[in-house]
Specification:
heterodimer, A: 101 residues, mainly alpha, two-stranded antiparallel ribbon, 4 helices, 76% helix, B: 224 residues, 2 domains, 11 helices, 0% strand, globular, transport (chain B), Brnchd-chn_aa_trnsp_permease (chain B)
């Protein structure tokens, strides 16, 4: 089994387990305000870190290339309140354009 | 009776509009997944079995960038933790057991929970309907669009040539954007980007992302 299969099956198994456990345990176990507060923050840090790493790194090196231009355009699109598909498409198009120049 | 069916119609309309819009993101996932080195089958299985957008993007993002399977799974699972808390919120509302609980748990995601909670003023039946309609609706469209996106990317070839390598971070940005409600959220987001980049030359791929969880823990656990 290669790394991709491990990724697919491991992620799927844990994703379902987390959902099912949530449906099955008494509410008091996780309703603590500190857990609730942290729960809101975790997606913010992980998704932000992914934005940075996917844009400015290649393996373990920092790098500035065409992807940064794509991200800049995505940022502008979000400021202009563009819907998600437009954000992604405009980033892809501008990055591809720079890649071919 | 007329009132009941009218409410049902409104709930169905809310659910469908969310399902189609969100489902369409599936195309971006399918394309990104194939560009990251996953096969069409693996991409579709992620959408069918993991069925949680942010987690799916995370695992293909981390592994695609050279991270280990464990790093990818860990990042995805940290993002999937919130679905557990949604389940906790939905369980007393749905009151389901056995196979129905398995199915209900599987479709417990941002959107099904969000639509269910948004129906509160229409009563508990509307909340339940909102949950199921949206859960199934997103599931159907998300998987169809994943398949389309995966085949599309396979036909394209070099991902960078089509800008797919920039589409992935743009997708993450689009996912985090609505969560940045206060200046503290924005400062946290920028800190996370900085921390992950500073750690990148020193840690194996994937770990700098997971390390930023410490920022969230530090801030969340300090809250009274």
């Amino acid at each position: 089994m290669n790394i991709y299969w491990w990724g697919v099956l491991g992620t799927s198994a844990i994703a379902f387990a987390l959902k099912y456990i949530g449906h099955s345990i008494p509410e008091r176990y996780l309703s603590h305000p500190k857990i609730q507060a942290t729960n809101v923050l975790i997606p913010i840090v992980l998704l932000s870190a992914l934005v940075g790493v996917q844009t400015f790194t290649e393996k373990t090196q920092l790098i500035l290339d065409h992807r940064a231009a794509g991200l800049g355009v995505a940022l502008i699109a979000l400021f202009l309140k563009a819907p998600f598909p437009i954000v992604v498409l405009s980033a892809a198009l501008s990055s591809a354009l720079l890649y071919h120049l | 009776m007329a009132v009941v069916s009218n409410t049902r119609g409104l709930t169905l309309r809310d659910s469908l509009s969310v399902s189609i819009t969100v489902g369409a993101y599936g195309a971006a996932f399918g394309a990104a997944s194939v560009a990251a080195g996953f096969s069409v089958l693996q991409s579709c299985l992620l959408s069918l079995l993991t069925f949680s957008g942010a987690s799916q993007f995370a695992v293909i993002g981390v592994i695609g960038a050279g991270g280990s399977a464990l790093s990818g799974i860990t990042t995805a699972s940290l993002l999937g933790f919130r679905n557990g808390l949604y389940g906790l919120r939905m369980a007393p509302l749905l009151k389901i057991r056995g196979v129905k609980r398995i199915i209900g748990a599987h479709v417990t995601i941002d959107e099904s929970t969000g639509v269910a909670l948004s129906q509160e003023s229409r009563g508990i039946d509307a909340m339940r309907q909102g949950f199921w309609y949206t859960g199934f609706g997103v599931f159907i469209f998300w998987n169809l669009f994943t398949l389309a996106g995966a085949f599309g990317a396979q036909a394209m070839g070099d991902p960078a040539s089509w800008g797919l390598d920039a589409a992935v971070p743009a997708a993450f940005l689009g996912l985090v954007w609505p969560r940045l409600k206060t200046s503290v959220d924005r400062a946290l987001a920028i800190s996370a980007v900085a921390m992950a980049l500073v750690l990148t030359p020193f840690l194996p791929a994937g770990l700098p992302i997971i390390a930023t969880t410490l920022l969230a823990l530090g801030m969340g656990l300090r809250k009274k």
